[in-house]
Amino acid sequence: QVQLVESGGGLVQAGGSLRLSCAASGSIFSINVMGWYRQAPGKQRELVATITSGGITNYADSLKGRFTISRDNAKNTVYLQMNSLKPEDTAVYYCIAARAITGTNPIFGSWGQGTQVTVSS
Q1: Residues 48-78: tens digit of each pLDDT
Q2: Cα–Cα distance between 18 and 70 in angstroms, integer?
Q3: Cα distance between residue 36 and residue 47, in whole Å
Q4: Three-state SS at 112
């Protein structure tokens, strides 16, 4: 199995920045895609960004330009740099490691516990 440990969430003023980290351990050989989802209370979990083992990235259209996903293979870690944060970005952010993601659905995915991001106005 894959274990994911997230960090970097917190409180930030609108317009500020945060950097989320997700470190993977365990059966990391099975990971083809890593990324981030987010979920606000009462709302459906939505895909934020993904990155493949080959470095191909994908972003939600509404977030592209403000958020950047990156990876450090030596550390088995994926990052999400979030800039120009808005109150509507407030959510629990979940790290995902999966064999694949079809549409917005992970296949054989492992999830982190989530890290809270709160953006105040």
Answers
A1: 999 999 999 999 998 979 999 999 988 889 9
A2: 14
A3: 6
A4: coil
Q: How many CB atoms lie within 10 A of CB 90?
A: 17
- Residues in the chain predicted with pLDDT less than 50, given as ranges, are none
Classify burial at 6, counting beta carbons within 10 Å of its beta carbon; exposed 0-12, middle 13-18, buried 19 or more.
buried
What CA–CA distance (Å, rounded) separates 93 from 48? 9
Cα distances (Å, whole numbers) of residue 113 to 6, 25, 36, 58, 61: 7, 14, 12, 22, 25
- Return the closest-CA partner of residue 82 out of 5, 13, 2, 3: 13
How far apart, in whole angstroms, are the C-alpha atoms of residue 29 and residue 70?
18
Torsion of CA 59, 65, 66, 71, to 10 degrees: 50
Element housing 92 (H / E): strand 91-98
- Using an 8 Å Cβ cutoff, are 1 and 110 in contact? yes
89, 78 Cβ separation under 8 angstroms = no
CA distance 34 to 52: 6
